[in-house]
Design a protein that fits this description.
InterPro entries: ARD, RmlC-like_jellyroll, RmlC_Cupin_sf. By secondary structure, the chain is of the alpha+beta class. It contains four helices and ten strands; from the N terminus they run ββαβααβαββββββ. It binds fe (ii) ion.
Length: 170
């Protein structure tokens, strides 16, 4: 379950309903899909083959189709970041630069953890700490950045409206 942390006060929202209510108030879509249906062989596998990535997408096909119809997402893929990723630190340096996109940025956390830091509508920056099973959609034009947590790894499904809409505007 996702947690929210405010940068200015270091306060957390951890209660499931309170997290959902806060993110709704910010127009950030949050859904909990869970990962119970995931084949255990696909967990903690940070070097998945293309076939295994497809297996991950197939596992969540129903949820992906449902949200894609609602939000006009057209494509999905799987991204993996870990210490096995070439030049991970260099990539992270880029991810922590504040930016926005012209489309929603949608991620479903399959394994590991990730943080989306988002500039809220009231000018306060907050983190959304994602755990396996969490889906987030950062609305278009919201300033934000991404980073990993202490485990320094994540497997996530990305959903796109258009590939061009996901280019970062710094
Ligand atoms: Fe982004």
């Amino acid at each position: 379950m996702a947690k929210v942390r405010f940068h200015d006060t270091n306060e957390y929202i951890e209660d499931r309903e309170a997290v959902q209510a806060f993110l709704n108030s910010q127009d950030v879509i949050y859904e909990y899909w869970g990962v119970d249906q995931l084949d255990p062989a696909l967990r903690n596998n940070y070097a998945p083959t293309d076939a295994e990535k497809q297996q991950i997408l197939d596992t969540f096909q129903k949820e992906i189709l449902e949200i894609s119809e609602r939000r006009s997402y057209t494509t999905a893929d799987v991204i993996v970041l870990s210490d096995k990723t070439p030049e991970l630190d260099k990539k992270l340096e880029n991810f922590v630069k504040e930016h926005h996109h012209t489309d929603d940025e949608v991620r479903f956390c399959v394994d590991g953890h990730g943080i989306f830091a988002i500039l809220g509508t009231d000018g306060r920056y907050f983190d959304v700490e994602l755990s396996p099973g969490d889906l987030i959609s950062v609305p278009s034009s919201y300033r934000h950045y991404f980073t990993l947590m202490e485990d320094r790894k994540i497997i996530a499904i990305r959903l796109f409206v258009t590939p061009a809409g996901w280019e970062a505007i710094y």
